[in-house]
């Protein structure tokens, strides 16, 4: 029987990269979605790491906000391997805008965030659904894992638009779980602060270090998460949780205890 196949969006860095490698280490074949030429080298490094782990891997360039690109990416997976067993929707974007500065955010920013974080997630799942449903006889149920955020549960995060988009991801997860059952399970992971470098690229090293220290101090467990921890939960949902669907799992070092 051929190895199961996982497609991970936003897999050049951070949670997506860690997830691709986690599946590869379990013998899955991995399709690594890359956004554009700016992250292509990083995506190729992830593919090489997957190869070192003994897994087949390809890099597919696509903007998940473009429906045609989503469909083309799934077509590429189908042409390469003829099956898809798990989709991890990890692609996302944000911008740091203080919540209290209502005039600093406009409709254009909401639309930009929603195009990737929500609409892109829907488009990817819709494109992948036929392949997920049509997996080989005897295979376990297909799995979609949406990367949400603690911001979806407590209204915090890098901006109001970001928090709102992730809240919508949770609702999308419930709707898709109903729609795609019984052949495909759909769950979401809501991480708190993850030391994955996304905010560092926006804030710079010094400001980022202050944010990390603050989040660590505020968390009851006095730590922040690593991308590999989120990847571990994604692997569990795809491969070891046949009874779980429509769930939003918080992995936030106890920060919800503070609300």
From TrEMBL:
One of its GO terms (biological process) is fatty acid elongation. It comes from the Bacteria. The lineage of its organism: Bacteria, Pseudomonadati, Pseudomonadota, Betaproteobacteria, Burkholderiales. One of its GO terms (molecular function) is 3-oxoacyl-[acyl-carrier-protein] reductase (NADPH) activity. Belongs to the short-chain dehydrogenases/reductases (SDR) family. The gene is fabG_2. CDD domains: SDR_c. Gene3D superfamilies: NAD(P)-binding Rossmann-like Domain. Its EC number is 1.1.1.100. It is an enzyme of class 1 (oxidoreductase). Keywords: Oxidoreductase. Pfam families: adh_short_C2. This is 3-oxoacyl-[acyl-carrier-protein] reductase FabG. It comes from Achromobacter agilis.
